[in-house]
């Protein structure tokens, strides 16, 4: 694995390249009119942009945000093509091919500054997945992302504040709202329900059996992808990763923001010459679900495989996107013996380094053969994607507290309890939130087509809880069901508008800020989500990292909406562009820059 360290010469060259790119994209708007006049050129064509998003039956919130943005762009004089793509096609266009102008979707939650590094650092440009799909290249953002990675305490907090100011100034993507996660459950068979949106392992281990005959936990979901893909490293971030993660162990697991030992019995953290070294000791007796022993060699293989799923066969490494931010900080992984592994991190604080302990441990015998290149739907990307990143993995072999039992695509997934797992052994001494194991023998997940169908199963006593998030429109009905309890918490999602910064005029941060000001985030919160959301001002909205100057206070402090109560002031929007040197045709259309 590469250490990721630049020599002084390489750093200087990278700064020069990024600075020239930034200068080329950001400094041209004000002089375009003068250049055209001097050269007696004809005026260019009207500007046209395409917005990609999901259809209403897949994600009504994304669809409505896309429609509102399209209407306001058109009111400002910009021709818009709003394209509704099926989820797989949208993710392919954006995350693999990066062929788009603007897109609207929900992104997996951004809970720490470390998650911003793979999302925005220029070193990840052109990698598939959520690795800088905006193709952002900004030297200030790069340096702040790198600095916070090795800092701690107040110094890191100040750097992260500066980082957020740079991000909102540049708007490579526009954070819109963080929706609430609305779930429902019955308490006649199981009690002590906790929200199941982020840490599903913790939630399930907290359940208490009320009915002694309730040996099956019955969950219901409107997400049929849970029965179509059980790959923990899928390139497209499968929505079912919470339940998939229960099939696979990791050295550590998050418990309310803190990484605690899981497959590891313990670990030691030390600092040497600026490097962080973590030495982890595995719990004794760990096995994969097929009976194969889990050893330190499997941990080393997993980290190396997630770093390059081609195992060195391609000229350029093909990392697993979902875990790119964690594996990219590991310089070396070494098996000291069968139970002990040592990890070295050259440019990461201990607080950042422990995140690498949460990657899944994969059995080498199952995944080594998945390093071959693949084509997707006739698109020749054989040097960018391996079979490991796109395989469905519908017969998974992990080592987690649940193991695969059976599957009927688009209908049902059944997982059984792994009684040999440390979480089921009193002697394993797992952290308190996970101690005591699972109070049921199996999980049966039923897939239905609508929230109404899910609530119907709950009301009839055919299901114990919803795994998927209910829409706000389902709340009144759920509230009328006497046997059903609702829970509402911050969801693991952020709705955003992504900008392709390599395309004109979206390469100009002034224009991206203009796009951001066409979206009334307050109206999205109240009219689209019935108040079950919070407007987002930075990618870290909802966390303690947001500085006071960037918090929502009746409006966005950096990119306030051009208008009031959802009504666009198109004159103000046009004036904003004219002041920046953008030109309009006599008929009112904004011209290409």
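Q: What amino acid sequence fits the structure above?
A:
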């Amino acid at each position: 694995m590469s250490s990721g360290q630049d020599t002084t010469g390489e750093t200087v060259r990278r700064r020069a390249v990024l600075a020239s790119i930034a200068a080329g994209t950001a400094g041209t708007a004000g002089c375009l009119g003068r250049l055209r006049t001097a050269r007696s050129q004809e005026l260019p064509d009207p500007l046209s942009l395409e917005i990609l998003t999901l259809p209403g039956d897949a994600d009504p919130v994304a669809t409505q945000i896309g429609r509102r943005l399209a209407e306001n762009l058109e009111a400002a004089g910009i021709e818009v093509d709003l394209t509704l793509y099926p989820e797989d096609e949208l993710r392919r266009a954006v995350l693999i091919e990066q062929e788009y102008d603007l897109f609207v979707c929900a992104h997996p939650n951004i809970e720490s500054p470390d998650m911003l590094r793979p999302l925005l650092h220029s070193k990840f440009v052109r990698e598939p997945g959520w690795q800088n799909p905006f193709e952002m290249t900004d030297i200030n953002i790069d340096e702040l992302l790198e600095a916070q990675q090795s800092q701690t305490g107040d110094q890191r907090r100040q750097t992260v504040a500066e980082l957020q100011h740079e991000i909102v100034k540049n708007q490579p993507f526009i954070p819109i709202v963080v929706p609430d996660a609305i779930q429902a459950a019955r308490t006649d068979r199981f009690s002590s329900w906790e929200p199941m949106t982020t840490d599903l392992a913790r939630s399930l281990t907290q359940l208490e059996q009320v009915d002694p005959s309730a040996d099956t936990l019955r969950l219901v979901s409107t997400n049929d992808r849970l029965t179509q893909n059980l790959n923990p490293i899928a390139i497209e971030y499968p929505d079912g990763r919470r339940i998939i993660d229960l099939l696979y162990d990791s050295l550590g697991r998050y418990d309310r923001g803190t990484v605690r030992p899981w497959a590891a019995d313990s670990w030691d953290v030390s600092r040497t010459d600026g490097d962080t070294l973590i030495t982890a000791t595995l719990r004794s007796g760990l096995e994969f679900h097929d009976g194969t022993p889990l050893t330190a060699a499997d941990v080393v293989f997993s980290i190396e495989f997630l770093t390059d799923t081609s195992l060195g066969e391609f000229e350029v490494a093909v990392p697993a996107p979902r875990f790119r931010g964690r594996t990219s900080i590991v310089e070396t992984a070494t098996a000291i013996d069968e139970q002990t592994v040592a990890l070295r991190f050259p440019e990461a604080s201990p607080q950042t380094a422990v995140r690498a302990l949460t990657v899944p441990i994969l059995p080498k015998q199952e995944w080594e053969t998945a390093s071959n290149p693949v084509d997707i739907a006739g698109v020749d990307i054989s040097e960018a994607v391996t079979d490991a990143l796109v395989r469905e993995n519908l017969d998974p072999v992990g080592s987690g507290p649940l193991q695969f039992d059976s599957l009927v695509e688009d209908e049902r997934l059944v997982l059984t309890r792994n009684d040999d797992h440390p979480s089921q052994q009193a002697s394993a001494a797992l952290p308190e939130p996970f101690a005591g194991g699972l109070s049921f023998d199996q999980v049966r997940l039923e897939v239905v087509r609508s929230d109404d169908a899910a609530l119907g199963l709950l009301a009839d006593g055919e299901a114990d809880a919803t795994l998927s998030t209910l829409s706000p429109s389902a709340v009144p009905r759920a509230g009328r069901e006497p046997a059903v309890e609702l829970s509402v918490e911050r969801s693991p999602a952020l709705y955003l508008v992504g900008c392709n910064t390599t395309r004109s005029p979206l390469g100009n941060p002034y224009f991206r800020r203009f796009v951001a000001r066409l979206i009334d985030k307050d109206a999205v919160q109240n009219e689209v989500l019935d108040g079950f959301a919070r407007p987002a001002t930075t990618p870290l909205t909802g966390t303690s990292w947001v500085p006071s100057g960037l918090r929502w206070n009746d409006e966005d402090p950096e990119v306030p909406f051009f208008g009031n109560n959802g009504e666009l002031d198109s004159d103000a929007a046009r004036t904003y562009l004219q002041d920046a040197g953008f030109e309009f045709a006599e008929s009112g259309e904004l011209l290409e820059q």
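Q: And what stands out in the fold?
A: The domain at 252-370 is CATH 3.90.76.10 (Dipeptide-binding Protein; domain 1).
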